[in-house]
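User: Reviewer 2 asked us to show a designed sequence for the structure in our supplementary figure. I'm pasting the C-alpha cells here. Could you produce the per-position amino acids so we can include them in the response letter?
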C-alpha cells in the first residue's frame, strides 16, 4: 500500500514499481487534498495490478478496512502536507495532523495488521539548516532540529517511528531525502512553479538573494532508493537519500530560463521567506553502502532538468488542468 500515492513523488514511485515488478499489487491510499492528483496515474488507472482507495491516514478505521480488504503486506508513506510556505502562512494544524498524528495512525495499523514492513518517507529538512561556508552535510546522526513548521511536523512522525520500533519492535524504516524534481510535481514548488511562470512569460519570484542551496534529486532516483530500502533496509534504521547535487536557487532559475529560451529579465527578487533555511546537503554514504546508485548524478543534472522541463512542455493537458485549478485551490486554502 502506498499512502499519498496521488502526489508528486508517490505517483512517480507507483509508476516505477509497476514497471519493475509485474507481479506486485499496489493499493494507492490517498485523501486527495489539493496536492493529490489522479491525473498523475491516468496511464495505469485500468491496470489490474493497481487500485485506488480514497482515505485519510489519520482515520485508523479506514486504514484497517483497506489493509484487511487487500491483505496489505508492505506500506510506504508519502502522505503529507508538504509545502513550506503554506506551513508558514497558516493551516499549521493540517501539517501536524497528517505529518505527525497520521504517521502514528499508520504505525498502529502496521501493528494491528502485522504488516511486514513500513517505510516512512521523510525529508532532510528535519535536520534544520547548514551555513553556506560550513564544511559538512547532514548524516543520519545529525541532531533533529527543524526550523519550519512543515519540517517540525514531519520530525514528529519520524520520532514516533523510532519510538514504535524501540518500544514495540514495529518494523519501520525512516528516510530523509533532499529536494526532488521531475514530472507530476504540483506547481507551488520552486521548479514547476518557475517553469509554469516562465512558460507564461511571467516574472519568476526568487526569495531573498537567491543564494539558498538545495541538494536536488530526481524523483525516479528517490523511487529506486525507496525500492531498495523496502526490500533490503534494516528495520528501526534511518537512511539519508541524496545525490551530492548542491545548487543555489539562482543557478536553478537561470537553467530553467535558458532551457525554455526565456530572458533572464524574468528573474525577479522578492521578499525572503521568513526563517528561510540557508542550505541543505545530504551525506548518502549509508544507502550507497547497500548498493544504491542514482541514475541522475550531479553531472547528469542538466539532462534531468532538461527532460523535466520538456515533460511539462509536452504534457499540456496535465499542465492546463492544474493551472485552471490553481486559483480555486489558493482561494480555498486561504479561506
Ligand atoms: P505532495 O504534496 O505532492 O503529495 C502529498 C500527497 O499526500 C497528496 O496526494 C495528498 O493528497 C496526500 N495526502 C495529504 N494528506 C493526506 C492524508 N491525511 N491522508 C492521505 N493522503 C494524504 O508531496 P510530495 O512532494 O510527493 O512528497 C511526498 C513525501 O516525500 C512527503 O512525505 C514529503 O515530506 C517527502 N519529501 C518530499 C520532498 C520534495 O522535494 N517534494 C523531498 C523530501 C521528502
Ligand atoms: P521549495 O520548492 O518550496 O522547497 P523547500 O522549501 O522544501 O526547499 O523551495 C526551494 C527553494 O526555492 C527554497 O530555497 C525557497 C526557494 N523559492 C523561491 O525562491 N521562490 C519561490 O517562489 C519558491 C516556491 C521557492
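Assistant: Here is a per-position design you can include in the supplement:
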Amino acid at each position: 500500500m502506498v499512502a499519498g500515492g496521488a502526489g508528486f513523488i508517490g505517483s512517480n514511485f507507483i509508476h516505477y514499481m509497476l514497471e519493475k515488478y509485474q507481479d506486485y499489487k499496489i493499493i494507492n491510499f490517498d485523501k486527495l487534498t489539493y496536492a493529490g492528483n489522479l491525473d498523475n496515474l491516468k496511464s495505469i488507472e485500468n491496470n489490474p495490478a493497481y487500485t485506488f482507495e480514497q482515505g485519510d491516514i489519520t482515520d485508523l478505521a479506514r486504514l484497517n478496512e483497506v489493509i484487511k480488504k487487500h491483505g496489505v503486506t508492505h506500506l510506504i508513506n508519502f502522505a503529507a502536507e508538504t509545502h513550506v510556505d503554506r506551513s508558514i502562512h497558516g493551516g499549521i494544524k493540517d501539517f501536524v495532523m497528517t505529518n505527525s498524528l497520521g504517521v502514528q495512525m499508520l504505525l498502529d495499523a502496521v501493528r494491528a495488521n502485522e504488516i511486514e514492513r513500513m517505510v516512512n518517507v521523510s525529508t532532510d529538512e528535519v535536520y534544520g539548516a547548514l551555513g553556506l561556508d560550513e564544511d559538512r552535510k547532514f548524516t543520519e546522526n545529525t541532531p533533529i532540529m527543524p526550523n519550519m513548521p512543515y519540517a517540525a511536523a514531519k520530525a514528529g512522525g519520524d520520532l514516533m517511528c523510532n519510538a514504535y520500533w524501540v518500544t514495540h519492535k514495529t518494523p519501520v524504516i525512516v528516510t530523509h531525502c533532499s529536494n526532488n524534481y521531475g514530472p507530476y510535481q504540483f506547481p507551488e514548488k520552486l521548479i514547476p512553479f518557475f517553469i509554469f511562470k516562465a512558460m507564461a512569460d511571467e516574472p519568476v519570484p526568487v526569495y531573498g538573494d537567491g543564494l539558498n542551496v538545495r541538494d536536488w534529486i530526481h524523483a525516479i532516483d528517490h523511487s529506486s532508493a525507496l525500492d531498495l530500502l523496502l526490500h533490503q533496509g534494516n528495520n528501526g534504521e534511518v537512511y539519508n537519500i541524496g545525490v551530492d547535487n548542491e545548487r543555489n536557487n539562482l543557478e536553478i532559475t537561470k537553467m530553467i530560463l535558458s532551457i525554455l529560451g526565456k530572458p533572464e529579465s524574468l528573474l525577479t527578487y522578492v521578499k525572503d521567506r521568513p526563517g528561510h533555511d540557508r542550505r541543505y546537503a545530504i551525506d548518502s554514504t549509508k544507502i550507497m553502502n547497500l548498493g544504491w546508485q542514482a541514475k541522475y548524478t550531479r553531472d547528469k543534472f542538466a539532462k534531468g532538468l532538461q527532460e523535466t522541463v520538456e515533460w511539462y512542455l509536452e504534457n499540456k493537458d496535465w499542465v492546463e488542468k492544474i493551472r485552471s485549478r490553481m486559483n480555486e485551490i489558493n482561494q480555498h486554502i486561504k479561506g
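For the response letter, you might also mention the following. The longest helix spans residues 92-112. The pocket of thymidine-5'-diphosphate (ligand 2) is lined by residues 84, 179, 189-190, 193, 205-207, 212, 214, 249, 273 (CB under 6 Å).
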